[in-house]
Amino acid sequence: MGKIESYLGFAVRSGKILYGIDSIKQSRKRKYLLVLSPSASENLCEKADRYSTEFGVPLIRTTENLEDLLNKPNCKLAALLDANMAKAVTESVGR
Fold first, then answer.
1. pLDDT tens digits for range 8-49
2. End-to-end CA distance of the chain
3. Helices 83-94 and 2-14: crossing angle, nearest 10°?
């Protein structure tokens, strides 16, 4: 997961990430990727699946907790707002 952690770190530093289901739902910015933590509740998983379909973006489930990857306490869902970073994360998961 080293590459994904790096890409998510770049997104955090550039301000191209949203944290949490509420901010993702309320934001009018274009989302390119949803990243879900394995520690997310069943309810959040269902909402993330629904938003993934609604926004037309891929949903990736990480093997490590997003709290640890993003250094953000209690973070279970994040959205990337940069197309190139989202593409890089998606490609690195496929490997």
1. 889 999 999 999 999 998 999 999 999 999 999 999 999 999
2. 11
3. 170
Three-state secondary structure of the chain: CHHHHHHHHHHHHHCCEEECHHHHHHCCCCCCEEEECCCCCHHHHHHHHHHHHHHCCCEEECCCCHHHHHCCCCCCEEEECCHHHHHHHHHHHHC
pLDDT at 94: 65
What is the C-alpha separation between 79 and 83, in angstroms, rounded?
A: 11
For residue 77 the two structure tokens come to 């869902």
